[in-house]
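Kindly review both lines to help learners:
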Amino acid sequence: MITLTLEKVEDTATGTKTFYFNKPDNFQFRAGQYVALKVDQLVAPDTRAGVRSLSICAAPCESQLIFTMRQSESGFKQTFWAMEPGATVSVTPPIGKFVLEPGDTRTVVYLVGGVGITPVRSQLIEEAQAGSERHFVLFNANRKEEDAPHREELKSLKLAHFQYVDVFSQEERELLPGEVKGYINKELLEASMDNPKECVYYIVGSPSFLEAMENMLHSLEVPEDQWHKDPFTGMDSANVIKK
């Protein structure tokens, strides 16, 4: 296990915080990967002994390791919410196949639910830093604007070919250009893109969100070898699956 020291904590969205840790000199990972993270000094009992699998929200090009998570009643989350700079945690080396394929030039379409934005932020920040010319489309689904972690940062990202679409299911204010009310569905993709069948899809969210996105891609007749999935289960560890 690798020891990390907490350097900063920020409120990122409603009930959501981002934790910034030091990045060891020899810590290398690919954008979109995850680690198993362990806290030893729990402030409340935890059903899994203070261990969770978390996507790395930081990009490899950044100087810190970043993790964003929603609040819950678990001992693990309560411990994180009580942490102050100087606290330490342990992580495994990074693993996972939810990564961009080298040499693939097809348009990348991200279908994201809530805090599942974390591995997507990692990839987009890395691609922006590298000056990527690849085309990216992000459909970012949340209940309301204030529930969307890293929203303003990603909306203003400097990528040559990047389309950002907010999808709000419960937003009450008047929507702005680039925002839609409802859910990610077949009609939205067909209205927003010229060639949905020819894109490669990166899907991350809750199990029910993944199921809905899979059904949608089937209805669009997108071959399954063009899907990459990252189940973001919250209470359970996220096992990265690539299809």
User: Anything to note?
Assistant: Residues 2-91 form a domain with the Elongation Factor Tu (Ef-tu); domain 3 fold (CATH 2.40.30.10). The chain has two domains: 2-91, 108-242.
